[in-house]
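Fold this complex.
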Amino acid sequence: MLKAAIDADIFRETIDVISALVTECRLQVSDAGIQTRAVDTANVAMVSIEVRPEAFTSFTATTQELGMDIAKMKNIIAMMNKGDLLSLDLPEDGHKLALTFRGYKYSITLLDVNTIRKEPNMPNLDLPGRIILSGNALNSAIKAASVISDKIALGIDPTAGIFYMEAEGDTDQIRLEMGKDELESLSMTEARSLFSLDYLKDMGKVMSRATQVEVLLGNDHPVKFLFDIADGKGHVEYLLAPRIEAD
Amino acid sequence: MGVAIRDLLADYKTTVEWNSLGGIGAIDAHNALYQFLSIIRQPDGTPLMDREGRVTSHLSGIFFRTINFLEKGIRPVFIFDGPPPEFKAETVRERRETRRVAGELWIKALKEGDTEEAYRQARSSSRVDAQIIGSAKELLRLMKIPFVDAPSEGEAQAASMARNGVVSYAVSQDYDALLFGAPVLVRNLTVSSRRKVRGRTIVVRPERIILRDVLEGHSLSREDLIKIGILIGTDFNPGIRGVGAKTALKIVRQDRFLETIREKSPDFDFEPVLQFFLEPPNTSSYSLQWGDPNPDEILAFLCETYDFAEERIQTALDKIVQRGGQRTLDQWF
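Structure:
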């Protein structure tokens, strides 16, 4: 059973976070709120998100696992207006989730959870580099790099005391350096890994709304992005596998 | 081959798009190899061979199909058969005989210049032997694709891995995996969407069968489904003469399974077969790891050892190696 009401914008934010990586997921619902963890089909990136009951206007739920068609949700959200209040209603043992807003009532058939990939474990990673910056600055850097390349290196140079992002196209190059003054926080640990902009572009769009994004970085290791949504009542972790640096 | 419950599944097969199949697929290796050996042949039935006359149809099949899987975001693990259970001996003997006869008829048809008949008989003579399995495993090793040696039937092992959530689904053309309890079975994962059936070309698309839908739809338990299989005939028993899927469904629904077996096949002890399907031997000692393939090793194996055309292999390898620049999260789990 699930009976909840939520601001349409917060719901949109939640779905956007997930849809940046997957088109369907197993959504864990309980009295602790909603939670999901999913890996994209190519096994390159992972999203882990939790939204606490306080993010909702009202929230009652029993523990259950729902098969969500995220792509479909995204289309439905496009029908909502800013400020709409969305009610979610799923009866006990029901297979159809009712979404009501502005007099519209969608009845959405849930997916069979058995057809959706199991939730992965969170890998144990040692990522010594840590940077905190605004989501907007991060997204801008990603966009700037994607003008000339399809991959970007993120790194920390402890000697120069900077966090840098650099990208190389066939003929062109871009480099952005940020010192302690421009960052909320920077650890002085050497780190550098290369990432695909295909993935980062979609993630960056979502992260641009966060006031703060914590970036955890290693050497030729995945990168982890941590940030809040729903005014701090929800939390997201993105994980992205690196590309191999070719000499 | 396999259990003929197709008639009961018609309403529960869903055609699915490749991109919705992302995840880990447990491939029934014997089924796939047999398919490659029977399909990848010249018009007169001659399989692909290298200079020394060694059959290479299966290597071509594994290589191109695996590349296609990886491109589509499917991570395959191949499950090889272990020793068959005792009560499969009769089936094994019959199949061997069928292949032997087909082999003779193939040669006869070739002599008579009947290409169509030659092709048909050649397909039936396909044989998955130790050399085929050995070279298939070697190729998988080089492609850094994991495989598992089942303690008994490969489909049973695939089903148990799917039940435990280790893999997303079982992949086989046969339906036995459903009897073994695979929650999801996927068929038709072929590179080409065209298949020749009795001279006509038809388009095949991946299809997914969800066990729970089948059971709920027919109001059956898995044990009931196995009993239906036993009545029709499985790889482990010949079945009751004249009983097809629909009749078997009726018999099981009316709770006349025991009675029917006693009456029509009094000497047949169905209990071991039923138990085998319910609790098949399986192993949990395997490691599933997908690594970055080394293109040079694969080229050397396929092109130097087995005479494949280098250009074709290289083009296919480019597809995964370009992406190969991108690591997956697997190695960090």
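Helices of chain A lie at 8-19, 70-77, 135-146, 197-207.
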